[in-house]
Design goal:
Structural class: mainly alpha
Strand order of the largest sheet: 1-2
Largest sheet: 2 strands, antiparallel
GO molecular function: metal ion binding; potassium:chloride symporter activity
Pfam family, one: TrkH
Strand content: under 5%
Number of helices: 23
Number of strands: 2
Order of helices and strands: HHHHHHHHHHHHHHHHHHEEHHHHH
Helix content: 55-70%
Keywords: Cell inner membrane, Cell membrane, Ion transport, Membrane, Metal-binding, Potassium, Potassium transport, Transmembrane, Transmembrane helix, Transport
InterPro entries: Cat_transpt, TrkH
Membrane topology: Multi-pass membrane protein
Length: 498
């Protein structure tokens, strides 16, 4: 383990977070609010800690897979610990655990909240709360790589560990340029949404808040009733459409810029993603006919909630807790499916669902025709066994953590629907569930241990399990054994790399 390089990158992360906190501080000063100290102290603390760790570049800057996984997990944890300080110092939260839960929910773009009332919060606090969505949406390390050099060619391990999906590669030869391209697309789409919301009559502050939430597919709003507080069909269409756009693999937007339209139209994941959205909207709209006056209204609310849930954003325009069981069941299924790989959305990802279905079909075919040579193809290319095995391992561990989290959270003595959907919403980075954690509910009723468990689930879901598990593995932190030249190692022992 290259501890010096781990500390160096964590220092850079803290320096960047310190700079990011300047934006909500400016908002606080612009509105003449009292939370100036709540931002100044964390800015100074994170800057000092960051300078102590990240000013001097280590001699050995090598980063391998192990270091990449550990750095990503530690970065998100450290960002959340320091990012919770403004919430704690502003006095609007009852405990630091609540602040940590809210911050983890923000950076992981989950949108689960312990707040029962948000409209009374100061503008600077609300801005920081939603801005964490925007930073966490594309990824903390991707953001840092876009503005600061980190570790040369080996930093691809950071990108692979942080970007969601079965696999990740470089769009261009230099990884820093890849990060800049991704964030350039991200910024442009965010600005377009802000302008469209402004054109519809939404205030600049509200436009920024909801654009941050849509871009990061997070779901924090500055209104108690979320987007439903506006009761505006135009806003529903704009925000719903952009949620879907941010749920698309960002590589496809890069292909559009290069005018490689055939690659976009041939994307198997995009077709499945849009097909699921269309089928879900139509089924829910038909199921809601007795709830609303016209079919157009049914389409409006169905479209927005399907967009919000499949992209794991969590905004709401209606209390879908009151919808029929059929519609709620569809939404719960969409919670697990999630958005596309390489997007800002959470969930298992459409790509993995397609791969799992195809590989299951192949195994059934092998049972009927044992000697047949069959391959699993995705996006027009055959998948190797390593990719398939990785998908199986991810799904197995995912279900294991999911089941264990439900079992542990059931000790809180809430009803089964609340417990089940709370874990589902957190591990898939969605936010609202059903029953007590529904779109008009919150997570304030859980104990501190329950909130920490759900915070762990949010981190596991956003980082897709392996970085967090690597961080918890004792073998990662052990020093490698070195054998004396005069002593011949036992043939059953394997010498570890330095």
């Amino acid at each position: 383990m290259n501890y010096r390089m781990v500390g160096f990158i964590l220092g850079r992360i803290l320096l960047v977070e310190s700079a990011l906190m300047l934006l909500p501080l400016v908002v606080t000063l612009a509105y003449g609010e009292s939370a100036v100290f709540a931002f100044c102290l964390p800015i100074v603390l994170s800057a000092l800690c960051g300078a102590a760790l990240g000013i001097r570049t280590p001699k050995n800057t090598a980063i391998y897979a192990k270091e990449g996984l550990v750095i990503v997990a530690l970065s998100w944890l450290v960002m959340s610990l320091f990012g919770a300080l403004p919430f704690y110092l502003c006095g609007s939260f009852s405990s630091y655990v609540d602040c940590f839960f809210e911050t983890v929910s923000g950076f992981t773009t989950t949108g689960a909240s312990i707040l029962t009332e948000v409209e009374s919060l100061e503008h600077g606090i609300l801005f920081w709360r939603s801005f964490t969505h925007w930073v966490g949406g594309m990824g903390v390390l991707v953001f840092v790589m876009a503005i600061l050099p980190l570790a040369g060619g080996r930093s691809v391990h950071l990108l692979r560990a942080e970007v969601p999906g079965p696999s990740v590669g470089k769009l261009v030869s230099r990884l820093g340029n890849t990060a800049k391209i991704l964030y350039g697309i991200y910024i442009v789409l965010t600005l377009i949404e802000v302008l469209l919301l402004l054109a519809g009559g939404m205030s600049l502050f509200d436009s920024l808040i909801h654009s941050f939430g849509s871009a990061g597919t997070g779901g924090f709003s500055n209104r108690n009733l979320s987007v439903g507080a506006y009761d505006n069909a135009y806003f529903d269409v704009v925000i719903g459409t952009f949620m879907l756009l941010f749920g698309v693999n960002f590589n496809l937007y890069y292909f559009l810029l290069l005018r490689r339209f055939q690659e976009v139209f041939r994307s198997e994941e995009l077709k499945v993603y849009l097909g699921i959205v269309f089928a879900s909207v139509m089924m829910i709209a038909v199921n809601l006919l007795r709830f609303y006056d016209t079919f157009l209204q049914c389409l409006r609310y169905a479209f927005f909630q399907v967009s919000s849930i499949i992209t794991t954003t969590g905004y709401a325009t209606a209390d879908f807790e009151q919808w029929p069981s059929f519609s709620k069941t569809i939404l719960v299924i969409l919670m697990f499916i999630g958005a596309s790989a390489g997007s800002t959305g959470g969930g298992i990802k459409v790509a993995r669902i397609v791969i799992l279905c195809k590989s299951s079909y192949r195994d059934l075919q092998r049972m009927l025709h044992p000697h047949a040579v069959t391959t699993v193809r995705f996006e027009g290319k055959p998948l190797d066994e390593k990719t398939l095995r990785g998908t199986y391992v991810f799904f197995s561990i995912y279900m294991g953590i999911f089941a264990l989290s439900i079992l542990l959270l059931s000790l809180e003595h809430f009803d089964l629907i609340t417990t089940f959907t709370a874990v589902t919403a957190c591990i898939n980075n969605i936010g609202p569930g059903l029953s007590l954690v529904g779109p008009m509910g919150n997570y304030s009723g859980f104990s501190d241990l329950g909130k920490l468990l759900l915070s762990f689930d949010m981190l596991v879901g956003r980082l897709e399990i392996f970085p967090v598990l690597m961080l918890l593995a004792p073998s990662v932190w052990k020093k490698p054994r070195r054998f004396s030249p005069s002593k011949k190692p036992c043939p059953y022992e394997i010498e570890e790399d330095a």
